[in-house]
Write a structure and sequence with these properties.
The protein has ten helices and nine strands. It is of the alpha/beta class. The protein has a single domain (3-253), classed as NADP-dependent oxidoreductase domain (TIM Barrel), CATH 3.20.20. The strands form two sheets. The chain has a seven-stranded parallel beta sheet. Helix 3 links the parallel strand 5 and strand 6 (99-104). Helix 1 (24-37) packs parallel to helix 2 (51-61). The protein is globular, with a radius of gyration of 18 Å. The two termini are 31 Å apart. It binds NADP nicotinamide-adenine-dinucleotide phosphate. NADP nicotinamide-adenine-dinucleotide phosphate binds at residues 18-20, 43, 105, 133-134, 155, 181-187, 192, 209, 224-229, 232, 235-236.
């Protein structure tokens, strides 16, 4: 298992499992399968409506709690007090004692105050690390004007078509880990039939999904691919036994459009 070390010394597995758009009725089964495949890092969020099922799968798995890294995200916080309550509700829903990484889901509301509440809970010990998601340059700088704890992670849209090289450099300057969401571009833009990725995949006897994920993994960018199919969970997890060459990386670099496929952030 490969890890990235966060700026407070906590280790986060580089390959995680996403649960966005995973209906709560199947989440427990999917997370149990992901854990059986070998994933030890699960990404959920308040607004996915499946924190309870993620927690249940972890408790049922029989693994020691400290072997599994769990991220969740605060949704729709307004300020300091309601965020304290909101964090408590996530802790209750997950019911696994503590949260490894809590992120502000998006830069809305009074995020300086939302983050201050997260700092309080971090100091109290119920959060092992805190960070943000979807904070591009301007909002990241606004947050840094008041943050006392440098965000451990910034989870942003990152895949072969939007590589976020500028944000990657900026995050390195702040010792904030740049994490990818939608590492498979959520299947958009014809990723699974892209000719460049297809050619590279064939030369390694791998799939397009594996090449797209390996491209990020090889840059130490944590990835959290989501799948409801165990065969794909296995496929997405099996990316540590091959290496993309400098030429292949350069070819994939040329797929970058610099544009969002989602138009959220
Ligand atoms: N912070 C944020 O604002 C934010 C935003 C979006 C996502 N996220 C996080 O990032 C995670 C990943 O992003 P995502 O779920 O949007 O998209 P993704 O992981 O890039 O792609 C998931 C899609 O690809 C399919 N898929 C997965 N593996 C495949 C494979 N090997 N071959 C072919 N198809 C495959 C899945 O279908 P099946 O399920 O049918 O296999 C699903 O439709 C989310 O689940 C969530 O945890 C965070």
């Amino acid at each position: 298992m490969d890890f990235v070390t966060l700026n407070n010394g906590i280790k986060m597995p580089l390959i995680g499992f996403g649960t966005y758009q995973m209906p709560s009725r199947i989440t427990e089964r999917c997370v149990e399968e992901a854990l059986s495949v070998g994933y030890r890092h699960i990404d959920t969020a308040q607004c996915y409506g499946n924190e309870r099922e993620v927690g249940r799968a972890i408790k049922n798995s029989g693994f020691n709690r400290e072997k599994i890294f769990v991220t969740t995200k605060i949704w729709g916080g307004r300020g300091y007090r309601d965020t304290l309550t909101s964090i408590e509700s996530s802790l209750r829903a997950l019911d696994i004692g503590y949260i490894d990484l809590l992120l502000i889901h998006e830069p809305t509301g009074n995020f300086n105050e939302i983050y201050r509440a997260m700092e309080t809970k971090y100091r109290e010990g119920s959060l092992r690390a805190i960070g943000v998601a979807n904070f591009l340059e301007t909002n990241f700088f606004r947050l840094m004007q008041t943050a006392q704890i440098v965000p451990a992670v910034n989870q942003i849209e990152t895949h072969v078509f939007r590589q976020q090289n500028n944000m990657n450099r900026l995050m390195k300057r702040f010792s904030t880990v740049h994490e990818s969401w939608s590492p498979l571009a959520c299947g958009k833009n014809g990723i699974f039939s892209n000719a460049t990725l297809k050619k590279i995949a064939a030369s390694h006897d791998k799939t397009i999904a594996q090449v797209a994920l390996r491209f990020l993994y090889q840059q130490d960018i944590p990835i959290i691919p989501k799948s409801t199919h165990i065969e794909r969970m296995k496929e997405n997890f099996s990316i540590t036994d091959f290496e993309l060459s400098a030429e292949e990386l350069a070819e994939i670099n040329r797929l970058d459009t610099g544009k969002s496929l989602f138009s959220w952030w």
